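Researcher: I need the complex structure. Ligand is NDP. Inputs:
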Amino acid sequence: MASTIPDISLNDGNTIPQLGFGVFQIPPAETVRAVRTALDVGYRHIDTAQMYGNEAEVGQAVRESGLDRGEVFITSKLNNPFHRPDDARRAFESTLAELRTDHVDLFLIHWPLPTRYDGDFVSTWRTLEEFRRDGRARSIGVSNFQVAHLERLAAETETVPAVNQIEVHPYFGNEEVRAYDRAHNILTEAWAPIAQGRVLDDPTLVDLAEELGRTVAQVVLRWHVQRGDIVFPKSVTPKRIEENFQIFDFELDDTAMERITTLDKGEAGRQGPNPDTFDYIPA
Ligand code: NDP
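Model: Output:
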């Protein structure tokens, strides 16, 4: 049975497909094939980043697919070395050149890096506001922003981020940040939605999947979308790319939702770096 992917409204009036395809850790040489497969399956939203080193291949896959540029929602993200406004402007131009497009649908500050740049992510955000004003970024947002970082943007700038892309999965609910996002009309994008595979052997999830006749990945992705978050699972495996797309033809009841939500381990469940201390600047 075919899946229809809902479009969700952003706070700036644009819309975003709730399910997309992530390309973190897909080597450039494999990216065209993986993204082509995803587009053939029906995905219309690709999540890349300058840091992933595969923007050019994402652009190539979209062109080769024969789809119009306007049919595919493309997100990219500012890499950590480029937070100063002039660097951000140059880096953004390079994103458009790599993708060979005149706009991205969404551009994010990848990490807040509060211990770098004298703690100044505000001037970086103002630079993204320029990209939005000139139309080269249809929407702008942030990634890995904690509540204090979002509060600072709210106090010092004009634009509320359209999205906050943060780590969220059954072992790490990240509820404090999600609650802030919800209260301020910021959509949460859940990165590592299946915890990079770590939740797939969880006994509660295995039981639930058996009861529902679904795979664990499908059940977990379905949990995310019923909570209203945006997801873009990554896979280089065609069968999994297809499987992860089939999540809009079944529902979890309240009890099933709650069983998954209670797997949250709090901070101990975090898989990736803590944004308050993460300060990685790639060479
Ligand atoms: P995911 O939670 O999407 O997990 C990806 C892993 O799970 C891969 O090893 C993949 O294997 C495996 N997998 C995928 N689907 C299935 C399935 N149906 N059954 C079994 N295994 C499966 O992790 P990601 O870290 O990739 O997160 C998703 C996206 O989020 C990224 O690609 C990126 O776009 C974004 N992201 C953003 C970050 C940020 O800082 N803003 C940080 C991390 C991710 P295989 O490929 O071998 O099939």
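Model: Summary of the prediction. The first helix runs from residue 28 to 41.
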